[in-house]
Amino acid sequence: MSAETPVQSAGTFTRARLRFRDWRGDRPFWAGLFTLLSGLPIAYFPYATLKLGQMSIAMATTGGAGSLIIGVLLVTLGLTMWFQQATRIFAGVAAIVLSLVSLVVSNFGGFVMGFLLALIGGALALSWAPGEEGAPEAAQSDGPKEVPSADVAPGPVADAGEHGLPVPQTADAGASDNDNGRNRAG
């Protein structure tokens, strides 16, 4: 290859993956996914019929309609978290409240699976915050950067003062410390 060789464009799969990653990074994706998935067992189990050979076991309860409503609302809240990020606080609180209601109404919250997924999704929605736009990753360092102050002359810095801030050491302060040390010893 030479310097003039044009760079091949990324494949369709790579471009789609990168676009999805960018889309996912701009919204509370995992909160929406957990909340969306929590609605499925809550709505499904009251209407499920299990066949064991000739015997069928129906899970139909009086809370079937309530379970269906809670499940559909949780799926809707999960989609809302994805497509309307501004309502994430409301959607997170609503998901947590609906998960608690599902314990009583819907077979212990879809046999605890839907309950736990909704709680985790709601908590993730409440804790998610949008990132700052245009913040380069190089600017985000491991620790705070020291900026020299205009009123403090550069020079050696003594141990931290009473508030944890560095105290500049002057020539006079160093000499008086040494004198005080001699006077105490002598």
UniProtKB/TrEMBL annotation:
Coiled coil: none annotated. Residues 133-186 are annotated as: Disordered. The keyword Membrane applies. Keywords: Membrane, Transmembrane, Transmembrane helix. The keyword Amino-acid biosynthesis does not apply. InterPro entries: DUF6114. It comes from the Bacteria. The chain crosses the membrane at residues 29-49, 55-77, 89-105. This is Integral membrane protein.
